[in-house]
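pls design
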């Protein structure tokens, strides 16, 4: 996915883990139970409450970071935007009068 993002000239990539707060948890688990029942036990183990286990979150973030770095994508929204703005500001405004 990161390689395709780079090919598409994406400037940055960010990710986050699901947070199953309030009624969302029950609805999501029902979805998993109905459509992916073989994943329910593993999913409940990774998400004992509204958030995924810290070890799992850190592994996912680390993998995402490695892939982003490998494909030369920024992890910051602001840095690529600053660079684009600097390009636009490098043009000289002509005086009207």
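designed seq:
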């Amino acid at each position: 996915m990161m390689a395709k993002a780079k090919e598409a000239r994406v400037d940055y990539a960010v990710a986050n883990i699901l947070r199953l707060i309030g009624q969302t948890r029950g609805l999501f688990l029902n979805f998993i139970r109905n459509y992916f029942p073989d994943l329910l036990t593993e999913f409940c183990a990774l998400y004992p409450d509204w958030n995924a286990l810290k070890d799992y979150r850190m592994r996912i973030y680390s993998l995402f970071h490695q892939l982003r770095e490998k494909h030369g994508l920024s992890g910051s929204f602001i840095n690529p935007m600053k660079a684009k703005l600097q390009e636009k500001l490098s043009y000289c405004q002509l005086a009207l009068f």
